[in-house]
């Protein structure tokens, strides 16, 4: 078997095309979706991610507002800015690029972002929403994975899904979203003993560990759907995921590449959440009139 490659760039392009139409509909009502992006310090990877997000906003007609702080910034100044942005009519989404320098308490920063502008979906309110199955802003990376699976017509109900990685931003919300779709979900992490005994059972395997070549062909079931969230830079500069792509492609039915798989979907779902936020706010304002 040779797996079909899920092209994240193409799936993203379809979703962004639809978003443009929704942005035009908002523009007809004099609403421009706005995303505020707060960057602290000069982490090179963050710089690339932020540049991509801002460019993607412009491509679909979302207005972005970028705020830069030095590495030694006082967290109070960032919290004050967030409070100001929470009150602004032209800002529908607020994103604080992670990681933050050590003087910041990330939980305090995330808690300060208004839950109805939390387009990254990291506020406790939205995390709680995920648990009970009605989150306002699903976190972008796992949301992108669900959209990709939907796009490929992969049914989730009753499927064995194994998620490798249990972080708050990818693994845990991923597992919750898949449970919400009635999959049978198993979560593995760095302390899991004999990872292969779990991965081999997966109809759908989602890997987000940040370890190149963690998943090799003998660890997967023939015909499995393999979603590689990992992004790793090898010493020679090459970008790879967590899955042995060449080997696993021979055994899987569907697989995502790195780059060009989940990565573009993450940015697209940020745009999606921002447009949805602007629509919700606009609908609420219309009701009040
Ligand atoms: P993290 O370091 O916060 O969490 C990694 C998780 O993987 C942990 O739960 C850890 O226990 C688990 N893990 C580590 N080694 C393991 C092993 N050998 N076996 C099983 N589990 C193991 O990382 P994160 O923020 O969740 O990101 C994970 C990966 O996904 C990274 O490579 C990151 O760059 C990538 N990522 C990609 C996107 C995207 O848009 N494609 C978005 C976010 C993160």
Notes on the structure:
This protein has 289 residues and is an alpha/beta fold. The protein folds into 2 domains: 30-116, 3-Layer(aba) Sandwich (Rossmann fold), CATH 3.40.50; 140-263, NAD(P)-binding Rossmann-like Domain (Rossmann fold, 3-Layer(aba) Sandwich), CATH 3.40.50.720. Helix content is 43%, strand content 15%. The strands form 3 sheets. A 6-stranded parallel beta sheet has the order 1-11-8-7-5-6. It has a 3-stranded parallel beta sheet with strand order 3-2-4, sandwiched between helices. Strand 5, helix 7 (171-180) and strand 6 form a beta-alpha-beta unit. The protein is globular, with a radius of gyration of 19 Å. Bound molecules: nicotinamide-adenine-dinucleotide. The site of nicotinamide-adenine-dinucleotide (NAD) has 25 residues, from helix 10.
- The coarse overall form would be globular
The CATH H-level homologous superfamily of the largest domain: NAD(P)-binding Rossmann-like Domain
Count of separate DSSP helical elements: 10
Low-confidence stretches: none
Mean pLDDT: 97
User: Alpha-carbon distance between the termini?
Assistant: 59 Å
Ligand catalogue? nicotinamide-adenine-dinucleotide
Taken together, the total number of domains comes to 2
Largest sheet: 6 strands, parallel
Output the strand order for the largest sheet: 1-11-8-7-5-6
């Amino acid at each position: 078997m040779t797996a079909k490659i899920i092209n994240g760039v193409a799936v993203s392009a379809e979703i962004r095309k639809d978003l443009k139409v929704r942005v035009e509909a908002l523009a007809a009502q004099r609403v421009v979706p706005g995303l505020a992006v707060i960057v602290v310090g000069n982490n090179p990877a963050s710089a690339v991610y932020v540049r991509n997000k801002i460019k993607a906003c412009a491509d679909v007609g979302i207005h972005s507002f970028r705020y830069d702080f030095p590495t030694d910034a006082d967290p109070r100044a960032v919290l004050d800015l967030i409070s100001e942005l929470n009150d602004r009519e032209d800002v529908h989404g607020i994103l604080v690029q992670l990681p933050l320098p050590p003087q910041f308490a990330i939980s305090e920063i995330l808690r300060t972002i208004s839950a109805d502008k939390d387009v990254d979906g990291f506020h406790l309110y939205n995390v709680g929403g995920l648990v009970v199955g009605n989150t306002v802003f699903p976190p972008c990376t796992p949301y992108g994975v669900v959209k990709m699976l939907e796009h490929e017509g992969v049914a989730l109900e009753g499927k064995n899904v194994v998620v490798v990685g249990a972080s708050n931003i990818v693994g845990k919300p991923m597992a919750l979203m898949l449970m919400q779709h009635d999959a049978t979900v198993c979560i593995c992490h760095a302390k899991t003993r004999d990872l292969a005994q779990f991965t081999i059972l997966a109809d759908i395997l989602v890997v987000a560990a940040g370890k190149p070549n963690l998943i090799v062909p003998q660890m997967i079931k023939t015909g499995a759907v393999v979603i590689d969230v990992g992004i790793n830079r090898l010493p020679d500069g090459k970008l790879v995921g967590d899955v042995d792509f060449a080997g696993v492609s021979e055994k899987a039915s569907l697989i995502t590449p790195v780059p060009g798989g989940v990565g573009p979907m993450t940015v697209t779902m940020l745009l999606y959440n921002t447009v949805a936020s602007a629509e919700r706010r606009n609908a609420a304002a219309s009701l009040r009139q």
